[in-house]
Design goal:
454 residues; alpha+beta; Beta-Lactamase; Phosphatase 2c, domain 1; 2 domains; 6-stranded antiparallel sheet; 5-stranded antiparallel sheet; 11 helices; 16 strands; 24% strand; rod-shaped; PPM-type_phosphatase-like_dom; transmembrane helix; phosphatase activity; SpoIIE family protein phosphatase
Length: 454
């Protein structure tokens, strides 16, 4: 009885062992393929550069599907052509020079239809195109091509060529390559985002470099601009006290002032505002100051000076203009002859504290019209009387609710200034304006000039 069961039992055990062996081989293959996919996922995090990602993925995939060559072809959205992003094998460099039209060859067919294809005999498949083979001399026996899909859209194709050994490509190979293509789509998307970030960073670096260079040039331009203005105030031995200040809203601005002695008894002074801001305004300001100083001389009235300077400035039809007020102070008599071109109303602060607006005949700003004529006005400063010139950066300074400082506030301030020196008045006026604006950014240049007859 026992002997009767020995044969069947041994046969059963042999069958079980054979089944276990087959199952082990199957599981071992599954584990190996799973490990490949895991390795690919891990490698995606090792670099964000597209070419490096493709190389890593392909090298890992070829461990499971041993082939002679492999390539990644991507779709050019502008031309609808496939180009070789990656081509491994003996003819890789030559292959990368080739582009395939939409639907051309197996790769073009897969890109067009989004379906994987196994071709185990290229000679019998009508979809096969030998253009690559003719260009490179590479003989293709069989190939497996799968689409690289991203959100249902074909980004390109993954192709392996000439499986090593005698076995053909199988559905299992196709399934594995399709799974390899999935992280490739992720890699392409990540690489695209990385390229955008790199491009943005490069653009930012370029912009920053340009900004730094411009800031440096603006600082130099600001230094040059300030060099046109008088830096040394007159001594206390002079029969007058004159002081001026310019505070630009940007690195360089368009407001300007000047004062200089024509002779021992006459002092010329001017203050103006160019219509533009920045470098163009600074250049126009430099030209204007140069003409004012170059043309002014003994016996020339302020009105005659502005008429002459305007002819020079307006001749070439510049895109900017400048408001201005200027004058000549006679030290011995206190007489002041003044002329203006579209500028803010000056004020006289008498020694007794009385505030008087200086009403000059209005003319056009410099360079507004070539034929413009400028007129002279007259006033007299007694001992202790003061003349104040300013630009609209003072009266039009705004606070947070866009309320302007206004001429009325300026007059109220001037009522508090008797006994102050010219420098003290300018400092106090700027403080008064900045307290009014209460931290609101300065939107316009500010220039102030005061002249006191001692």
């Amino acid at each position: 009885m026992d002997g009767q069961w020995v044969g069947p039992i041994l046969g059963l055990l042999a069958g079980i062992l054979l089944g276990l062996g087959i199952m082990y081989a199957f599981l071992r293959g599954r584990i190996k393929r799973s490990k490949v996919l895991f390795d690919i996922s891990m490698q995606l995090n090792s670099t964000l550069k597209r070419r490096e990602q493709m190389e890593l993925i392909m090298n890992t995939a070829k461990q499971v599907i041993p082939v002679e060559a492999a390539s990644v072809l991507l779709l050019d959205p502008d031309t609808d052509e496939l180009f070789f992003e990656l081509a491994q094998g003996d003819k890789g460099d030559e292959v990368r020079e080739i582009r395939l039209k939409s639907g051309e060859g197996i790769a073009g067919y897969v890109a067009q239809n989004g379906q994987s294809i196994i071709v185990n005999d290229t000679k019998t498949d009508p979809r096969w195109s030998n253009r690559v083979a003719q260009s490179t001399g590479f003989v293709t026996r069989n190939l497996l091509t799968v689409p690289i899909l991203n959100g249902g859209l074909v980004e390109g194709v993954l192709q392996v060529v000439n499986k090593k050994g005698t076995r053909p490509f199988t559905k299992r190979d196709r399934h594995l390559l399709e799974r390899v293509a999935q992280p490739m789509a992720v890699a392409l998307e990540n690489a695209r985002l990385y390229a955008q970030v790199e491009h943005s960073l490069e653009a930012l670096k370029t912009t920053t470099a340009i900004k730094e260079r411009l800031e440096s040039e603006l600082q130099i331009a600001g230094t040059i601009q300030m060099s046109f203005l008088p830096r040394i105030m007159p001594s206390s031995q002079e029969p007058y006290d004159v002081c001026a200040l310019l505070k630009s809203a940007k690195e360089v601005g368009g407001d300007f002032y000047n004062f200089f002695k024509i002779d021992d008894d006459h002092l010329f002074f001017a203050l103006g505002d160019v219509s533009d801001k920045g470098i163009p305004a600074a250049l126009f300001m430099a030209v204007t100051l140069t003409l004012l100083k170059g043309k002014m001389g003994p016996g020339l009235s302020p009105g005659e000076l502005l008429t002459t300077v305007n002819e020079e400035l307006a001749r070439d039809n510049p895109l900017v203009f400048a408001t201005i007020v200027c004058g000549v102070f006679t030290c011995s008599t206190g007489e002041v002859v003044m002329s203006e071109g579209g500028h803010c109303t000056p004020y006289v602060v008498r020694a007794d504290g009385k505030i008087e607006p200086v009403k000059l005949k209005k003319s056009l700003p410099l360079a507004a019209m070539e034929e413009a004529v400028y007129h002279d006005g007259y006033l007299t400063l007694g001992h202790g009387d003061r003349l104040l010139l300013y630009t609209d950066g003072i009266t039009e300074a705004e606070n947070a609710v866009q309320e302007q400082y206004s001429p009325d506030r300026l007059q109220q301030f001037l009522e508090m200034t008797p006994g102050m020196s010219s420098a003290e008045i300018i400092d106090a006026l700027l403080m008064h304006v900045f307290m009014f604006t209460d931290g609101a950014p300065q939107s316009d240049d500010i220039a102030v000039l005061t002249l006191l007859r001692r």
